[in-house]
Amino acid sequence: MNQPVVPLLLTLVLACGLRAQLTAESPVVEPIVTAPDSAAIAGPALEPEVYPLTHCLITGAPLGSMGEVVQLDLHGLSVQLCCAHCDEEAREREDLFRKTITKALLKRDGPDYPLRDCLACGQPLPRKPLPLVQGSTLLLVDTEACAARLAAEGGAWAQTVRAAQAAARGAASSNH
Ligand SMILES: [Zn+2]
Ligand SMILES: [Zn+2]
């Protein structure tokens, strides 16, 4: 009759021992402060990037009309294709995609671009800044050298622009 109690007691003793051990160790463990910090840096939640084209640049077919849209990354540029058959040709025509997407983003996001200074050097942007694209985010710089620097350094710069965008939108909506 008493037999089942023994394993139970044993479990309790072990569990208490384990807890005591954890408690004893806990002062040594440094509190992790990185999570709240990075959340504070991120500020307002970033909206997902929106691809600026509605059609596949290879076939001209509307995206989604041939099944699930195919996503492609061409050296940091987000590209969407109507189907997997377009993949190879898209890689060969990266220039076309970069040119067309940059133009579309300049038209869509250029007027509301949230920063006044070049991301790379901090100088005020000229009246006709140079556009480049990371992911589906427009970046504006003042010189070819700055454009090359951002292109080489990758997607973190797009995050900076998108955070500024989110902050600008937040400020605009709280003004209403
Ligand atoms: Zn296709
Ligand atoms: Zn610059």
Report on the architecture of this protein.
It contains six helices and four strands. It is mainly alpha-helical. The strands form two sheets. The protein has a two-stranded antiparallel ribbon with strand order 1-2. Strands 3-4 form a two-stranded antiparallel ribbon. β1 and β2 form a beta hairpin. The protein is globular. The chain starts with a helix and ends with a helix. The relative contact order is 0.11.
Protein traits:
single chain, 176 residues, mainly alpha, 2 domains, two-stranded antiparallel sheet, 6 helices, 46% helix, globular, binds zinc ion
State the shape: globular
Number of strands: 4
Rg? 26 Å
Q: Provide a count of the helices.
A: 6
The arrangement of helices and strands along the chain is HHEEHHEEHH
Secondary-structure content class: mainly alpha
Helix-strand blueprint:
Elements: H1 5-25, H2 34-42, E1 70-74, E2 77-81, H3 87-92, H4 94-109, E3 130-134, E4 137-141, H5 144-153, H6 156-174
Antiparallel strand pairs: 1-2, 3-4
The structure holds zinc ion (2 copies).
One zinc ion is lined by residues 56, 58-59, 66, 81-83, 85-86.
Short description:
The protein has 176 residues and is mainly alpha-helical.
